[in-house]
Amino acid sequence: MNKAVPECLIIVPSLTPNGPIKGAIALANGLGELGVRVSFVALKTGPGANSLLLPDVVLHELNYSSLFSLFQMRANILKILFQRRSVSSGAVVVISMCFSADLINVLLPRSTKKIVSVRSDLKDNYTMEYGPMGHILASIHHWMFRFIDVVVSMNSEMERVLSNYKCRQIITIPNFINEVDFKTVGTPVVEYPGQTIIFVGSLTNRKKPFLLLETVISLNEQGSDLTLLFVGDGPLKDQMIRRVSESGSNRIHIMGFQESPSKFVRNCDIMVLPSLSEGTPRAVMEALYLGTPCVMRSLVTNDNLVVDGVNGYLFDNDEDLEVAILKALSLAKRSFSTHGLLDESFSQNTCSKSYLKVIERLLE
Description:
Blueprint: E1 7-12, H1 19-33, E2 37-42, E3 58-61, H2 70-88, E4 93-97, H3 99-107, E5 113-117, H4 122-130, H5 133-144, E6 150-153, H6 156-162, E7 170-172, E8 195-200, H7 209-221, E9 226-231, H8 237-247, E10 252-256, H9 262-265, E11 270-273, H10 282-289, E12 294-297, E13 312-315, H11 321-328, H12 348-363
Parallel strand pairs: 1-2, 1-4, 2-3, 4-5, 5-6, 6-7, 8-9, 8-11, 9-10, 11-12, 12-13
């Protein structure tokens, strides 16, 4: 008797190409490569993230503008589930990422096999983004997990935090990237002088881009020959542009959103991400995959990603960033023909197989 082909439906809030959506796309493609039939559901449209999906992944765009359409979203997803069950003659596992997608997952029938992938420390992130209201959002989000069959964390520290809540089962599967996107990476039109540092991410207080900005200004004033690129948008962008203008520096570039930041990352000497909190940052994983050493704050969640003197440096306090940057600039970049500076445990194939084991167990 032939083994049934696993069916999986992945739900995300939108097709905006941010970290969690890229993670969902990497998972969809990774499972597809392993023979899983994957449907990818976006609750609303976005600027073209669907172009990253492999042809075998079936895309559904629901195009709802707000959570006020919650039950219409649920009805549409139930329709998709019914269609998939008709094709597969069996159960379909639903995987969701982020608040709105997790909420829809919770509202699906109890008989549905459900997985949630948690991408960060919810309490820290929501509080930094939304202030006191963030505590309430995090509490609601954690409460939802009690209705989920398996909650997937990205590292042991996240698993420890989630163990404080009433989750049925928690397992750890590392974050990973969509490796096919980095097999051929173009080079930027502009070549920058000196050694080049890049920051990729949102320009928010949690990410601490101003710390990096002031550190590079200081290093250049001390005689270093550094160019700094900021790739990303956010509420601090205008303030940063004004500060660069005030400094008189022509070596710092606020580039805004870039559809393909990897072509810049590959040609930079190091990436610096001084965030106050992270899950397992996708930007750093992409940089390491391309062979670019990284500097990060010494957080429990970062210790298994960056090893001092091997693929970058970690720093403890803001005042230590300067020394960490100078040390990282001395590291030689490696070829990205395999996984560059990224440990094999973060490979797409390895992590997708771990998800497949969970899916098959739920379908038994």
